[in-house]
Each structure stands twice: as C-alpha cells, then as structure tokens.
Specification:
The protein is of the alpha/beta class and about 160 residues long. It is built from three helices and eight strands; from the N terminus they run βββαααβββββ. Helix 1 packs across helix 3 and helix 2 crosses helix 3.
C-alpha cells in the first residue's frame, strides 16, 4: 500500500480557473485538469523564476517530487495547447500558506490606524496598489479590474506581480 500523499503548500490560488480556445464551443471541447499544486509549480518556476530546489521547499515537498509535479503540469499544458483542449484548474491535496500574523495566535498582529484589516485581511490586494516587474523592477499603478499577473512589463515584457 503506498504512503498517503502529503499536503502541498500553495501561496496563491488562481484568479481564473478555466481557459479554452477562442471560437470553439464548449460542447466540442475536451478538457485537461491541472491540479492546484501543478499550477503553483508552474507559477513558481516559470513565472517567478525560482529554482526547483527552492520552489520545492516553498511547497514543502522534495526536489524530485517537485520535479515530477512540474513535469506533469508541463505535459498537460502542452497537450492542451497542441490539441486545442480546455484547461481546468482544480483539485489536488494542498493547503494555503498563511502570511505571518494572519493565523490564530501566531506572529505579529498589526492593525491599520483605523483598526480594521479590510476585505482582503490586510494584504495589499484590492483597490490601489502597484504592479511590479520581478525582472527589471519597473512599477506602475494597478488598474482596477485588471490583475497585475495579466499585465506585461512595458520595458522587458515579463509578466508583472502585485507589489
């Protein structure tokens, strides 16, 4: 009997969980299911540029396990792109990583001067804020309704992240 799978640690949930080729009705599409941990592996290595051994530590898995997760994710994505299939992101065994101070009784408990934490629990998401390029450091104001992760840096073309 194999060992039970451990929970993978996830920092970000996908903002969008379904992608499909344009112009093809849903009834005519097959879909590939990408697990949330496979999504996180792609995000860490291909988007953030983190080496596999460090990315594995962030997800609390060994480097060989991380490599298998990443290989599976890349195979599914390439199959979907080449064969014109939809991509659905769901499932898998994972736990969201909490920021320091966000858990019950752990870490610092900082409050804004008004005392509230806002709708996102005090994180920098929500109205206002800046988008930052992880490669060249270029910053620009975040546009309402357009996530930073969907913006490309005007200087180097790399996808931006929320600052």
């Amino acid at each position: 009997m194999p060992r039970p799978r451990r929970f993978r640690r996830i920092q970000y949930m996908p903002e969008v969980n379904y992608f499909k080729p344009a112009g093809i009705p849903m009834a005519n599409l097959n879909e590939v299911v990408l697990t949330v941990s496979e999504y996180e592996a792609i995000r860490l290595v291909d988007l953030e540029g983190i080496p596999q051994n460090k990315a594995g530590k962030k997800m609390k898995v060994s480097q060989p396990t991380f490599s298998r997760i990443l290989k599976s994710a890349r195979k599914k994505l390439s199959e979907a792109v080449v064969k014109g299939m939809a991509i659905k992101i769901k499932g898998g065994k994972y736990k969201m990583v909490q920021r320091a101070g966000a858990g019950k009784g752990r870490g610092l408990r900082r409050r804004a001067p008004a005392g509230g934490r806002g709708r996102m629990g005090g994180s920098s998401a929500g109205p206002g804020g800046k988008c930052k390029c992880p490669k060249c450091g270029h910053e620009e104001p975040q546009t309402r309704g357009q996530p930073c992760m969907n913006k490309k840096c005007p200087k180097c073309g790399k996808l931006m992240t929320r600052a």
